[in-house]
Specification:
With 278 residues, this protein is an all-alpha fold. It has twelve helices and no strands. It has one domain: Alpha Horseshoe (Serine Threonine Protein Phosphatase 5, Tetratricopeptide repeat), CATH 1.25.40.
Length: 278
């Protein structure tokens, strides 16, 4: 079974503010430019700028700037499919996390969670998500609370507990809609699509074909709304991920023409932008 793709922003990658990246210091042009490139989906160039910012922060012995630069390095690496590098870098950023304000610290922990889930260090991923949730609650950070709920849901999904995942994602989606936070609505809808796909495979493996098809059917409306929102966002990464997941859900239901169209589009978009989609 292939794990459906989740969105790390706002994502965790995401992150605070309007976009999926840590706040950039106005005095660090490379950091500012890296975030701009992140928002544009230009992750190869963005990673180069973030690495430059990290070098400058080390030279200046500025732990706050270093934590933010490493956060961006890890976020760009994640989207490029460089998962091992992303985990190494985000762990280094966590070592500097005491320099960050609580909202950025939550977002960094959420990135640890999503990267760790992909790498397979599940205990570390779940622990990071739970720490982010506790920190967000302590400081009344509703946006970061929503991110953490989403990350915890992904951890449960990848551990083979789609029912638990569904519960956490449902909480996240309710909060995101309450805040009218477009980034978080999109990422949570995509996560719910992924949960439906995972549930299909689990029910199918147990010979529960009717339940499997019901799970895939539930994924479709979430996936459709996610694709519409991704298209409106103008972010090619989000559009590739959501299209790929919706395409897989249609394929599970034997909607072959729709599945082929969506999956081919996702692959073409990923290749054109240097993304790794699975």
């Amino acid at each position: 079974m292939r794990g459906a793709l989740v969105l790390p922003w706002g994502m965790s990658d995401g992150m605070s503010g309007s976009g999926p990246a840590p706040r950039a210091n106005a005095q660090a042009p490379a950091l500012v430019r890296s975030r701009e490139l992140f928002d544009q989906g230009a992750h190869r160039d963005g990673l180069a700028q973030a690495e430059r910012a990290a070098q400058e922060a080390r030279a200046a012995q500025d732990p706050l700037a270093l934590a933010r630069a490493l956060h961006l390095c890890a976020a760009h690496s994640w989207r490029l499919g460089q998962y091992t590098a992303a985990l190494t870098t985000v762990r280094e950023a966590v070592a500097q996390a005491e320099q960050l304000p609580p909202d950025e610290c939550c977002e960094l922990l959420c990135l640890v969670s999503i990267v760790g889930t992909e790498i397979g260090v599940r205990e570390e991923a779940l622990e990071a998500g739970l720490k982010a949730l506790d920190l967000a609650r302590q400081h009344g950070l509703k946006r970061q609370m929503t991110q953490a709920l989403n990350r915890i849901g992904v951890c449960h999904d990848r551990a083979g507990r789609p029912e638990d995942a569904q519960a956490f994602h449902a909480q996240a989606l309710a909060l995101a809609r309450e805040m009218q936070d477009q980034d978080l609505i999109l990422s949570t809808l995509n996560s719910l699509t992924a949960v439906g796909i995972s549930a299909y495979y689990q029910h199918s493996a147990r010979g529960e074909q009717a339940l499997a098809r019901d799970a895939a059917r539930r994924a479709i409306p979430c996936g459709q709304e996610a694709v519409e929102r991704a298209r409106a966002s103008g972010d090619p990464y989000r559009l590739a991920v959501t299209s790929g997941n919706l395409g897989e859900a249609h394929g599970l239901l034997e909607h072959w023409s729709l599945a082929q169209e969506l999956l081919e589009f996702a692959i073409e978009t990923a290749r054109a932008n240097g993304y790794r989609m699975g």
